[in-house]
Specification:
Elements (H helix, E strand, L loop, with lengths): L6 H48 L6 H22 L7 E2 H8 L3 H10 L6 E2 L6 E3 L4 H16 L1
Antiparallel strand pairs: 1-3, 2-3
Helix pairs in contact: 1-2
Amino acid sequence: MDRELTPEQIQAQARLFQKLQRQAEAATQALAPIANAATERLNALAADLDKAEAEPLGLSTGQRQILRRTAQRLRGWADADTEAKPVGYLTRAQFARLAQVSANTLVKWHTAGSLVPAYTHPLTRYRYYKPEQVAEVRAARQRRQRKAAK
């Protein structure tokens, strides 16, 4: 049987999360120049691939398609790196710990449509949740317990 977190425990977890979030934001700012340089390089590589595809180098249709797809992926990575990271969100593992359910349960609920993450990264497909969604998990657990009791 799962034990419920007390309001004090939830507040302590929220404070810890905020501290970790501030540390992550500081690290993100420190890494920004490196990420910008990598993004510029990815875009340059994509442009080189576009040029190679456009030039008649004796490439087959399949080879040109591979170049096109690779350039698209590079641009996708560059776009994902420059996209704002979710601030104030919990990873799937963090949220599962806070909500006292397994991470796999969250995936199953997302697949079933009963608990949709607040944000899903477009490239990595990582799921992120808002701390307020814990109430949804508790309501779902209570509904399930009521059904089992009938």
